[in-house]
Amino acid sequence: MAISAPGDGQRVATGWSGPVVVEVAHGATVHDGRLGVVCPSSGYEHHTTFSAPSGRVEVEVAPLEAPATDCTATAELDPTAGAATAVEPVSDPVGDPVDAPAQGPAAAGPSASVGFSAWHRVAFTDARISPVFYPTVRDGFADTAELVFHLSAPTDVVLLAYDVARDRVVTERRAVLDAGPATWAWDGGKGNRRRASLPTGRYLLAAVAIDPVSGHSVAVIGSTEIARRTITRRIVRSVPAVQAERSAHGACATGVGEARASLVCRGTRTSYAELSAVVRVPRDARLRAVGSRNEKPSVDERPGRVLHDLERLSPRRARVSLRIDGRRALVVDELYVEWSKRVQQRPVAPVPGRAGIVAGEVTEGPDGWLVELAPRG
Questions:
Q1: Most CB contacts within 10 A, which of 29, 191, 194, 371?
Q2: In 224-349, which ranges are continuous DSSP H helix?
Q3: Would you say 357 and 374 are in contact if contact means Cβ atoms under 8 Å apart?
Q4: Is 268 exposed, middle or buried (0-12, 13-18, 19+ CB in 10 A)?
Q5: What is the CA radius of gyration of the chain?
Q6: Are strands 44-51 and 87-91 parallel, antiparallel or unpaired?
Q7: What confidence score (pLDDT) does residue 86 get?
């Protein structure tokens, strides 16, 4: 006889209740036997009897609710009915030997056993993901993408960020997670380097584990988007608000009117006249350029240069300057600085939702991770 299911060394899922398949060689009409399943590490124990009139029987057992690695199923047949009984010779009254039933314990029937184990299946349920986030803005809102899921059993998990446009994994992390809810917050960086430069676009976040029962990888995959928006603003300061300075040497002059300033330089090449102003800018602003709106008097055809300069004095203050040198005259209407600041648009659904969860498979091959999404529809 033999036990064909579960197989020797097989892994079954917790909650498994059989059947245990006992194969009995054909011979007698009916085979009666006993089946025992025990898992010492979990305290599981189940015993039952069975009959196999056809030589094969499937026996249901009580569910294995707890995981265990030391389970054993043992089947044993009763001694076959009608089998020859062992005898030993004795003497009759006249001295002739005769056969008589042997005295002693009855012979045990055939038996078989297999070892197997019970494991929790690994599955990802109740999955959600952030639809869009802005990793360059650190104001506490939508700064990271969150992949949220519920894990059916404790297991080792690989967390991946996958660049769809460039078909490559940009972040890979490993973690040991307990059963229950879990959240992976991705800041859009490469590996452990925060604020790494990743282009805008679509990315996949995936959590991958190996199911110990089937031996196959299982995964949850969500789609998110890195979004950045840059707004450039021009701050204009009118000329009456600026201070005019002249070099100690040379013949440059500066005159300030109600709406504009006239700078006239008649000196050597090292002579200059300058207008400057201190302007306020946002703390995180990027200073891009300084410029002016000016005109050269038509009567002035002499050569010369107009120079602009921008200097950051503090996180919120900058100095803008305009200088003319050489043989030149200039009428300045306004002096300004251009700055830009990344600002975030409030996403339509800032809370992670189920809309971004996609079907597919994640497997690890010799060349790295492979992400295959299921066709839509």
A1: 371
A2: none
A3: no
A4: middle
A5: 43
A6: unpaired
A7: 44
Q: How far apart are CA 148 and CA 212, in angstroms?
A: 22
> Of 119, 110, 83, 117, whose CA–CA distance to 3 is shortest?
110
- Please give the structure tokens belonging to residue 318: 């900058």
Give me the sheet containing 317-326, strands edge to edge: 243-246, 272-280, 317-326, 304-314
Locus of tokens 């184990």: 117
The residues near 43 (Cβ < 8 Å, ≥ 6 apart) are 66
> Contact 22/35 with Cβ under 8 angstroms?
yes
Amino acid letter, 291: G
Per-residue pLDDT tens digits for 303-346: 778 889 999 999 988 888 888 887 778 888 888 888 877 665 55
Query: What angle (nearest 5°) sits at the alpha carbon of residue 190, between those of residues 187 and 194?
Result: 50
Two tokens, residue 206: 């995936």
Determine the 3-state secondary structure of 14 from DSSP.
coil
Burial class (CB in 10 A: 0-12, 13-18, 19+), 106: exposed
Q: Tokens 């038996």 map to which residue?
A: 111
In this predicted model, what pLDDT tens digit does every residue of 110-168 receive, in sequence order? 889 999 999 999 999 999 999 888 776 555 556 788 999 999 999 999 999 999 988 89
Strand partners, 223: 204
Of 7, 2, 9, nearest to 75 by C-alpha is: 2
CB 217 within 8 A of CB 362: yes
Q: Are strands 360-365 and 252-256 parallel, antiparallel or unpaired?
A: unpaired
Tell me which residue of 352, 362, 373 sits closest to 126, measured CA to CA. 352
223-272: pLDDT as tens digits: 998 876 655 566 666 665 555 566 655 667 777 665 678 887 777 667 78
